[in-house]
Design brief:
Layout lengths: L3 H13 L2 H4 L4 E8 L1 H8 L4 H10 L2 E4 L12 E8 H29 L12 E8 L3 H5 L4 H10 L2 E4 L11 E8 L1 H15 L3 H8 L13 H4 L11 E7 L1 H8 L4 H10 L2 E4 L12 E7 L1 H20 L3 E2 L5 E2 L1
Antiparallel strand pairs: 1-3, 1-4, 2-3, 4-6, 5-6, 7-9, 8-9, 10-11
Helix pairs in contact: 1-8, 3-5, 4-5, 5-8, 7-8, 11-13, 12-13
Amino acid sequence: MSTAVDDQEDAASASALPSEVQSGEQKAVLKLLVSNAVAGSIIGKGGATISEFQQSSQARIQLSRAGEYFPGTKERIAVISGTLHAVLTAVHLVLGKIKEEAAEEEDEEEEEGEEDEDVGSEGGLTVKLCIPIRLCGAIIGKGGHTVRAFMDDCKADIRIQGQEQLLPGVTERLVTVKGMTPQIMRAFGLILSKLSEDPKYDEYAEQPIAPASRYRGPSMATLSAYVAPLASAPTTVVMEVSNADAGAILGRRGRNIAEITQVSSARVKVSDRDDVNPDTGCRKVTITGTLEAVHLAQLLVCQKVGMSENAGGRYNNNGRRSV
């Protein structure tokens, strides 16, 4: 049901786009990560909603199949292509579905007495984009100047995934945008407008997208380009962590690292306290296994570190908590 606030946001979103984008006819492609619930809402009963969105925007919208996620996440990929204006029109429609699902999650969590900061506060949203690694420099700018200018302009928070966080074989970095709908639309407009200035973007935007099966988007063969060709081949990833974080990963008497190994089926080894990088003083975490196992182990490692920090305590070198 439309509300006065929604109507105000729609009007604000339309005026939020950069002037050069509002009449933009150049080709554009935008890839968003969406939950299974949002993907279902975008498709609609019998594909009615996605057909309506495509007709209204004149953009093409494709979704990866259920279970086909962006590496290291549990989120599906929505590929929106067309003219710059058509893509942004479709994005605005998709953001409406993301907002609806976020509101439902928030209501459920309030009933259960839980909170999730990713849902956003006061109606804010968190949306993730996939940007080719080779194009990210244009968004970041020298010394981060461009992305800071974007944030000053759109008033949204824009975070670009660090190179050290990339998983093996992944060719795109995640760009996380947080804010109200008009702020996010402005951010997307600025990002796409900037990308369109890069000659390499034309090649990316003009790339044919593999024919989609009914309402479900690219085939598995297309999506597998995101990861190394042989997912079952042994993969090794080395992460650097502080001494305190190494303790959180190990856990008391090695409980945490044993749990990570058991759940992920990957081999996880933390270097000894005297085996550190002389430049950073960090210890090494070496993860070996299949690509899927390594992805999962990395997520679990980050989760253990985050839990330690959120608990307000830190672990010492032996894996014992110190306050």
